[in-house]
Amino acid sequence: MRIPHCKRELMKGNKMESKFNDERYLTFALGKGRLASKTLDIFEKIGITCEEMRDKSSRKLIFVNEELKMKFFLAKGPDVPTYVELGSADIGVVGYDTILEENRNVYEVLDLGFGKCRMCVCGPESAKDLLLHHERIRVASKYPNIAKDYFYNKKHQTVDIIKLNGSVELGPLVQLSDVIVDIVETGSTLRENGLGVLEEVCPLSARMIVNPVSMQMEKARIRELVMKIRAYLESENQENK
Ligand code: PRP
């Protein structure tokens, strides 16, 4: 009989072993790009290193720290909560925007404090009145769920949402939409295109998320990790004061 892959993993030398034991790897999914690089900086500060991951020329997908029994992989931001919810990763690091948009069953355990920006309703000055009078407007966004929640549940305003995949600021410029719901960091993309922030939806930053089963089965390791990162972030904050 063919043993399913997941069961084979649980069997070692004729004896069943718990998938969750001391030898088990703790697996991290990190959102590609700036967030991953900043996360690795923090991990290094608390003694978790993964040199190989810094090598931008490498096409390798999974990196292992054998000593610490940890595995790391990089994924597209919106896929990180998926890997974590479904248990391919125990822990993920991703922007709060993605957590809200994907709405996956994961625990958010830590605000990492970097990658700070804001989710905003933006557009030309002329759109202010449309918002004020709850007109039925067109809203372009890479974040249709966040946009829908904001307009329907918080503002009780009926709008038409148009999903875009990037360069969302184009929406009002080419009359595709009246406003956009998008991330604002420095505000320069808006300024350079004659647009501005009209309303703030919520503040954003990088967050650590955990699979609910891992949270129970790997409680000690995860708790220790979170405590170390939190202590490091607090000491860094003190220094910057
Ligand atoms: C993000 C966001 C804005 C811009 C905001 O886009 O969607 O366009 O950054 O940053 P700023 O306030 O500092 O100008 P990103 O660079 O991720 O590319 P995208 O437009 O393809 O989504």
What does this structure look like?
- With 241 residues, the protein is α/β, with parallel strands linked by helices.
- It folds into two domains: 5-115 and 205-240, D-Maltodextrin-Binding Protein, domain 2 (3-Layer(aba) Sandwich); 117-203, Periplasmic binding protein-like II (D-Maltodextrin-Binding Protein, domain 2).
- The chain is 35% helix and 27% strand.
- It has helices at residues 5-10, 34-45, 80-85, 96-102, 128-132, 144-154, 170-173, 188-192, 212-217, 219-240; strands spanning 11-12, 15-16, 26-31, 62-65, 70-75, 91-95, 107-111, 117-123, 138-141, 160-163, 179-184, 196-204, 206-210.
- Strands 4-5-3-6-13-7 form a six-stranded mixed beta sheet.
- A hairpin with a 2-residue loop joins strand 1 (11-12) and strand 2.
- The protein is elongated and about 60 Å long.
- The chain starts with a helix and ends with a helix.
- It binds 1-O-pyrophosphono-5-O-phosphono-alpha-D-ribofuranose.
- 1-O-pyrophosphono-5-O-phosphono-alpha-D-ribofuranose binds at residues 142, 166-169, 182-189.
- 1-O-pyrophosphono-5-O-phosphono-alpha-D-ribofuranose (PRP) is lined by residues 142, 166-169, 182-189.
